[in-house]
Amino acid sequence: MENEIFKALADPSRRTLLDLLHASDGRTLNDLCTPLQMSRFGVMKHLNILEEAGLITTRKVGREKLHYLNAVPIRQIYDRWVSKYAEPWAIELTSLKNELERETTMENKPRHVNRIAIKATPEQIWQALTDPAKTSKFWFNCSIRSDWEIGSPFELWNPQGKKQVEGTILDLNRPHRLTVSWKFLSFPHTAGDSPSRMTWEIDPHAELQGVTLVTVVHDEFEQALNTAAILENGVPIVLSGMKTFLETGATLAGD
């Protein structure tokens, strides 16, 4: 996969497409054609390569197909090739991630989308997501607490016994979908934020046996912009950590 990522990033037109999505995410094919002064077919070809490398994701909204920057592969490249060599000088690379995913509706609501492929079954991913002993391996050392019923509380606790996040289970379909409300308790500047929403979509890969696509959507954060900024940085790290833990048994920080 890393070879595909580097190959995708090697072309200046594809880097321009990523820049365009970074500036304004959730764009249609027509939106992306004009700045490049390229045919629809040419832009589609570049977008397909970026999607195959996992650098963008797409979602259908009505008749439109919207394209979003996916932060997770960038974070993985950073973790492997940048952080251990140039952490103090390369922090700005992590800014290449989702800003606002905008629907083509009158409401124009923002949304962040991150996706990763993990060599594990949906059941294994669901267990990792809901088992306190496993979440602590990749979710910033926090363990998760809930009885996993719709309407029940959802919480994250740190090793010192302090609750970091609280929310409610809004929707649940084991092992494929989990939606929770989300409110940080551990950051003073999020105290005034209203609860936002986080959805985990866990689906078998259409072509690769034994591989599951995990998509995390954060939305309804119009009144929680500080929360959104934290999760924009944090979710790619959580997903990268989950992948590393499930595929190797290790953590990003090491054992």
Automatic annotation (TrEMBL):
Keyword presence, Transport: no
Single GO MF annotation: DNA-binding transcription factor activity
Annotated CDD domains: HTH_ARSR
Residue stretches making up the HTH arsR-type domain: 1-89
Domain of life: Bacteria
Pfam family, one: AHSA1
InterPro entries: ArsR-like_HTH (IPR011991), ASHA1/2-like_C (IPR013538), HTH_ArsR_DNA-bd_dom (IPR001845), START-like_dom_sf (IPR023393), WH-like_DNA-bd_sf (IPR036388), WH_DNA-bd_sf (IPR036390)
Keyword presence, DNA-binding: yes
Keyword annotations: DNA-binding
Gene3D superfamilies, sorted: 3.30.530.20, Winged helix-like DNA-binding domain superfamily/Winged helix DNA-binding domain
Family membership: Belongs to the AHA1 family.
Name of this protein: Polyketide cyclase
Source species: Paenibacillus elgii
